[in-house]
Queue: 2 jobs
Job 1
Amino acid sequence: MIDLGRAGAVDRPDGEGRAGGGACDDRIRFTLALEAGRIAAIRFGADACPAATAAAAWLAGEAEGRSLLGAARLGSQAAHAACWIAGARLGCIEVAVDAFHAALGDAVVRGARVPGGGRLAVAMSGGVDSAVALAEAPGDAFGITLRLWIDPLAPDAERACCAPGSVRRARDLCHARGLPHVSLDLRDAFRTRIVAPFVAGYEAGETPNPCTSCNGSFRLHELVTVAERLGADRVRTGHYARIVEIDGVPLVARGEDREKDQSYMLARVPPDVLARLEFPLGRRTKPEVRARAASLGLAAAGARESQEVCFLGGGDYRSFLHRYGSGAGDGAIEDEAGRELGRHAGVAGFTPGQRRGIGVSAAEPLYVLRTEPDRNAIVVAPLRRLGTRSVALRDVVMHRERRRVEAKLRYRSPAVAATLLGDGEKRTLALERALFAVAPGQTAALYEGDAVVGCGTIARAVPDDDGLVL
Amino acid sequence: MIYLDHAATTPLSEVAWRAMEPYLRERFGNPSEPHAAGRAARAGLDEARVSVAATLGCAPAELVFTGGGSEADNLAVLGRLRDGGRVVASAIEHPAVREPLRAYRGEVAWAPVGADGVIDLVALGALVRPGDALCCVMAANNVTGALQPVDAIAELCAERDVPLHVDAVQAASGSDVRALPGRATLALAAHKLGGPKGVGALAGPGVRDLPAVVLGGGQEHGLRPGTENVAGAAALAAALHERQGPEAVAERRARAARRDRLEQAVGVPSAAHSAARLPGHALLLAGVRGDVVVHQLDGAGICVAAGSACAAGSTEPSYVLSAMGIDAAAARGAVRVTLGPETTDADVDAFVAAFTGARTGLLRAVGSVA
């Protein structure tokens, strides 16, 4: 029989979570009150099937009196085992577990703290890399997963009603080790701080790099902040990069696996955040990590790689911009002399170096040289005009002042030797050889050896006809 | 345990047990065999057939024993439709009739019911046409307990010479059931009236010209081949006699009074409340999820049924309640409580207390989800 004694709601709750309302029409809500990091009271609301209602009641009964982290150990398998109901599927239970963990996460987002310290947090994505990082973590570790906004209209969009599969996988991995898992719903903040500038950047004619922004100013900062509230002064992630300390300053450095190296993506992470991070996979290769995952029996070992911008949900960024952009209409495709060669459906769909979608026939192949959103025009040129040796940077941050650097101007392009001219936030990068299709808006990661000593945002690329390197 | 799910099945009554027990052991023979053991079994089967036919008011030759109510319904529906033709059926038929009709490739016209769960006679009258292959109605609905105007429907069908099949499986537990004139057939199941599971009957003048759809050894006038369940037939005869005999009248009245008291005490609406209903039948609309109420009552040692069940991640409202115009949210709160002859006042009191407690807690839970 379901104990309905905790049915109801806490007045002025310190944490609140909901799930459900999708196809199954079950809805669960939790509210909780904290005292000194312990759950003093927790109540549930339910308009749901017997299994979901029973799981909600069981979770409330188990959680009351526990610390937030203690409660964060409670998950689907335990709830399913504890409240067996004929015919109940795990999916019914998950609705209650999602709502419960949403309430715990909400309490943490609102600033709840857990007494004690010295713990280790592992940032979990639900994929194989963080699964291995977790498996090798000590017994007092806990997992954290950030729930970020994903385009609900994308092909791989997750159900908006419940936690996405990635969050559930991360949670199950933690619970399988008996460790707590905390998931934080940062969808609104993520949309404001990362997705909106991404759309605005394209509309301004740039090619934004949301991943470096997210790592640099949002995701990892949130992780260390929240981990600290939960008594963890260190956060491990599954990134393929290293952290080196030079003259007392922690810097991101290239990972051992050059194929997977994510130092470029982490170029904007400030040293004070870096000082709290650990990248245990930085000295290993992806095949090694996969083999390790398989030997640990981790189900995520064979999982598909996610490399795309996460919020696109496997979709195309052009159709995303079409959905969420201001929708500036069609305009001219011109050559450098201003002659109209054709029409385009919106500048936001184009990035320097792009050939696809131009649809203009010419004597030699034409590529996007730049976009000019104020005129709603795209300027195209032959390949040889796309080389550049001189790149203007803005928002430059140097962790270690250097003139001679190696500059990496896109995630998948090689680093080239360069000289950094000027000082302050606006500087010019003089490249030793011309690079193809340098895109304003992209991050310039500046290396000395393997270490990222600084970074900036590409403001402008000056065309250079000579010596183009492809 | 307090058992208030008599519409699902019933405990074996004392008379049914006494009637069947000899045929399970000492009179175990196969009625088709001419030897002493076979003759003893045959005598029991004949006796059961005569008894059931007498209770229903048909000839023994117009009665076949079947493997249960669903089988009897299927034999009638599939037999009548073997050569095609149009069918008219009520929108609230039991799946034993509804599903063969849904699988049928010919034309099926579904007759509506009113808000009280009773077949709309005028609409049915307009639908049934001379030359139709079959008309199907139930004598009492298994979800709401609403009694259906089968005598009027039988008259209407006889006038137009349309064979009628009446599913009386639920009705026989608490209302008078009689074989109908014309080419009508009627289905029964023993376990709904104090008999064992796995035995039923198809009865009425329509049995005489009903085409066979199951072929085999020719037993039961060739309509239901297979070695006869003599013990089951004997139990069905005894149970039916008890439920349909003169002493049943007072028992039904007492059952209805308990049901009425229960409905008043719980203070929630009942579906089909304004219709004439089976005496022990109440379909409460709890206003909270019926399946959770059922779970809670089960925990308190009380067995009742939910009106709708969660299937494959979505709660399908009962088609019976939909046909009555009850919306999906209200239908989700349906709890079917069905009293039997052995139900006591104390059982009713215990139910009311447990139901009220569960409903109060669930109202709090539902109120807190918004």
Job 2
Amino acid sequence: MTELSLEKLKAEDVKEISKALTIIENDPIEAKKIVGALDEKDYCVIGLTGSPGSGKSTLTDRLASLFSLKEKIGIIAVDPSSPFTGGAFLGDRIRMKRTSRNDNVYIRSMASRGKLGGLSPSIYDAVELLGRCGFKKVFVETVGAGQSETDIANLADIVLLVLAPGLGDEIQMLKAGIMEIGDIYVVNKMDIEGASRLKSRIEAVLDFSNHRKDVILTDGIKGTNLEELARLIEKELQFLKESGKIDEKRKKRKRFNKLNTVFQELKELPDEAIDRLVEELKKLTGGR
Amino acid sequence: MGKKIKVLIAKPGLDGHDRGAKVVAMALRDAGMEVIYTGLRQSPEDIAKAALQEDVDVIGLSILSGAHMKLCPRVLEFMKQYGIGEKPVFVGGIIPEDDALELKKMGIFEVFGPGTSLEKIIDSMRKIVK
């Protein structure tokens, strides 16, 4: 591990955590070593997804600020990389001024680096690192999502689907994909006309299926209903813990972490190696 | 995947003119860098803290308010305090030549005045990171 102090990392030193995250972003093999050198800890992952401009960053800032009163909070905010140049403009911090000076909150911006699905290739290790460095809740904000950026459901214990009025009718909500992955539905910008109509439509659609989910109106800028949203998150976490579902989520997270690593490594292989792998896989799966 | 150059573009102090910062941020983005823009009216401490958390390679300050002689040393001070005093800081904006010399003595790596080409900014950042 080049120029990284494990001792400092274990002491939850901010500079060392930042350096470790940079290594994790650039070198998947080294990433596993760093994360593996730290003890596993209990933490939970809260994902925020939704269309660009629906208010994810502002809500993340508000929630982190509320939860930071009693525990250390980590935030990873993902924005897209350019498919042409690989560059990125990461602007989520602009909306996070409430917590940028809070010593209990750590904010890190990440570029998606060509990964589709709304996250970045190194997100699993990055989240795990923060969890092992004493952050009790890790918020992950996806890139502004369309219909099929659903990877966050494999990573997070709880997914908040953030919506805003003015973006489509009930038919959009019946479609498969992102509309299915919310554990809590947040209708943000409640001051805009149509917000309560959107809320009742979501509730109506959710009623078609069996499991009841919470839908809440919020105003991220003013902070309206944010305490209530924080309470819903705690309630959902409590439910996951009591029902044992949290263990399933964690198993799933570990599995997808592995799959993600395998995929990242496969991408680097030449075609002949992939062909050989396909042959090996046939043996494993019995020729299916 | 390889190492990407990460840059923090920040506007310290009371100054609402961010076109320059945005133009530079876009140019760096188009040059393949990952640019974190923190928005208007940041305190020197906010900027140093963002640079610490984001572990950027370079910090670019855009100042058009005339307060550069006060703001720059404050940013450098907080960076030292956070243990990242070694990271290079560039300043862009309307900076008189005499002040630019002073700023460089203070530890600012380079000062870019009006009319500087985007290529020059990109090149200097690439050179220093290598």
